[in-house]
Amino acid sequence: MTFDRAEAAARLRARLHPEVIAAIEDWTGAHPLAPLRARLLSHADPKVLLDAVAEAVVAHALERSGCELGFEVPTPGGRTCDFEARRDGARVFLHVKRFDPDRPPRALSVSPRLRYLERIERPFVVRVRWRPRIDDREMQRLVVEAERFLRTAHVGDELVVRDDDGHELGGVLVAAPWAGPRVSLAIGLPGGFIDESARLRRLLRRAAGQFMPRAENVVLVGTTREEDHEDLRTAVYGSPEERWDAFPRRGERIAFGRADDGFWSGGRHPESRAVGWFGADAARPLPRVRMLVRRGAAVGADLRLAIDALGAEVAGDDSQPDAG
Question: Cα 287 to chain center, whole Å?
Fold first, then answer.
């Protein structure tokens, strides 16, 4: 397989898993994915190439599971669905959206001292960040102050830790509740925490405008960072908040819920019953997929096809909100 139109395409080829490369080689002639192969081979623009690679990763997973595929299937409203997948009488339409977070990629060296925070018995997702080139003594100070803070913190609380000269060492943010008994860590940027949920909601609304009427539609949002899944969960269900008008779950002192700003909040977008995150990492033969299924939605044969064909982990909303 030759990516010979641009230097960017050549670099991209080096990242693709050989199994995906081999699949793309077969997308020729009358194959329904031949237009996707042509796009991969003909575009030098990095964004277009990365979008096409995300679609190719999903297409390969669906094809490998035995699905018959349609590509860029037109809707009655003049839009297109990225894929139509059919198998054993079931049919689902998939809308693949690659998401670029508003943060640069960076290589991380994660101190083992941070793992101490995961022993704290508070059911929260906690985002932690630290300044570049932080030394072990400074990291220890960050962990000690963060541990003290997390013992009593609430959802939305943030701590900034400074050294004796007032220079910032890092910080922690209590981002959301979750079902586990102890703190779950997510990594933020040195300069601050970025909430991508508003941008993701706009992306989901655009995808909903491409839905095939009277059919099962699933939006798949691809990123290269697994922690982006938490931002997608917030975009779908709403911002986490403490609820004083509800009873807490057994064994907990505080009830958690979601604000009314989610894609599914208040019964919005009833035609959407599942939204998935996938790792748009072309170095893997198959993507990691986590599927959010709307609360109360029946998982029929069509939706089950999407879940099984992608090997998706079905993840619910840990705060048990009214998901619409």
Answer: 12
